[in-house]
Write a structure and sequence with these properties.
Number of strands: 10
Distance between the termini: 5 Å
Largest sheet: 7 strands, parallel
CATH architecture: 3-Layer(aba) Sandwich
Strand order of the largest sheet: 1-10-9-6-2-3-5
Strand content: 15-25%
Helix content: 25-40%
Radius of gyration: 17 Å
Shape: globular
Number of domains: 1
Structural class: alpha/beta
Length: about 240
């Protein structure tokens, strides 16, 4: 379903609330979380309210994606962003975090490592952002719907947009990511788009079903909701929203 919120703060509140619910109610909580600027406030709000919760001992975080060739501690890595916004504030143990290593020489082995973890520990809650070209994770336009992780060639748009995460120009050519099929198998998925800069791609995803954009694969599933603020939804007509697809 497509849900429109008044502003970013309303979405932040709702996501933090749902993360807390899944932490408390899932028997074996396994979260798959996008990094980046869109969800960071939700993570900080969740961390602020959950830091002393005894259920944190049971929480595990599995990686969504990572830049190939970028070390975990490097400014701009997906791990570094999540560590700053969530892992460190919650004081999670290393054993609770199963993350892609983008500097691993054998990337196929790295894919198998994460796939095996998910097979034995199904994802209960996923929070996805949407790239400016509609990618989910690093599943770029034209990708296949895979039920396993893979190494991908990054689109030119992703290479350019991703520079905002780094403190100096950084060469990015490939990424490692969960497949769309893996993400969809999560017990619960929220896809977030906020701000006017996401209005164009939001319109394309929701109103142009022939566009073959990765994020469109997640539309129309009962366990998957798209959360947009009014700025991101400004070019989506009310008739489309009322269908609740």
């Amino acid at each position: 379903m497509i849900k429109i919120f008044e502003d970013k703060q309303a979405i932040t509140n709702e996501i933090a609330k749902e993360m807390k619910q899944h932490l408390l109610n899932d028997e074996n909580p396994v979260f798959c979380l996008a990094s980046g600027t869109t969800p960071e406030k939700s993570y900080r709000q969740f961390a602020g309210g959950a830091k002393n919760n005894p259920r944190l001992e049971d929480l595990r975080i599995v990686s969504l994606d990572e830049w190939v060739g970028i070390g975990r501690t490097s400014e701009g890595s997906c791990y570094q962003m999540l560590n700053k916004d969530l892992f460190s504030p919650l004081e999670l143990r290393d054993s609770q975090i199963k993350f892609f290593n983008g500097t691993e020489l054998d990337l196929e082995k790295e894919c198998h490592r994460i796939d095996n973890f998910i097979e034995n520990n199904p994802i209960t809650f996923s929070l996805m952002g949407v790239g400016m070209n509609g990618h989910i994770g690093l599943n770029e336009p034209g990708c296949s719907i895979l039920d396993h992780s893979c190494v991908v060639d990054l689109s030119e748009k992703t290479k350019i947009v991703a520079q905002k995460y780094f403190n100096q120009p950084t060469s990015l050519e490939k990424g490692i990511t969960l497949g769309l099929g893996q993400i969809m198998k999560s017990k619960r998925v929220i896809v977030v788009m906020t701000g006017e800069r996401k209005a164009e791609i939001a319109k394309e995803i929701i109103m142009n079903r022939e566009a073959q954009i990765p994020a469109q694969v997640l539309l129309g599933h009962e366990h998957i909701d798209f959360y947009l603020d009014r700025e991101a939804a400004k070019w989506i007509n009310k008739e489309t929203l009322n269908k609740g697809e």
